[in-house]
Automatic annotation (TrEMBL):
It comes from the Bacteria. SUPFAM superfamilies: HAD-like (SSF56784). This is HAD family hydrolase. The keyword Hydrolase applies.
Amino acid sequence: MTIQAVLFDFDGTLANTLPLCIYSLQEVFRTFDQRELAVKEAKEWLGNPESKIIEEHLLSNQKFEAIEYYYKVYKNNHSRLVENNREIDHLLSYLKEEAIKLAIVTGKGRRSLQISLECLQMTSIFDCIVTGDDVLQAEPDPEGINLALSMLEVPSSEVIFLGDSNCDIEAGLKANIYTAGVHWLPDGKTTEFEVIPDSAFLTVDEFLDFLKLGALHES
């Protein structure tokens, strides 16, 4: 088997952005609803575009202002709460050198993703990006993954998808592609996978060794 493409979730997989997402939502609900949003509740909502989360859960009628405030907080605090990860940068560089197509499939909105890609200097890396704004059904529905596969024009048997949440794993398996769970960043969505992935990795180096040693070919 030859790997032609690697699909990544974003929050908790490519970048340790979950603390920033949660902080930004908490600031919105504190400012517009005078409510202290619990971390657990915020985590349950994430996986959908932030604008949709605010529209559905904010009690205030100032939905537009709240959404704009979210992006302002998200951008202004990015450098403070999200660090560049050298291991992930190295992984992406290695995959590009190997001429493997790269894609992001994420439930977050395109606007916040673009902010993160710019802050982390990742804007020119990916061949395909699918966000929660591009699909009708959020994960665990495989719509986003299937859309990425059609855009990349690669056989599903030659693709691997990496994610850090149960929804990621379930979506990858439903799309019938090789699916790996990762817990290599400090703040992932889950500590244990309820849905068992094809493989699991605790470090980026483990995944690199997996690729270089041809472990996928043997499975």
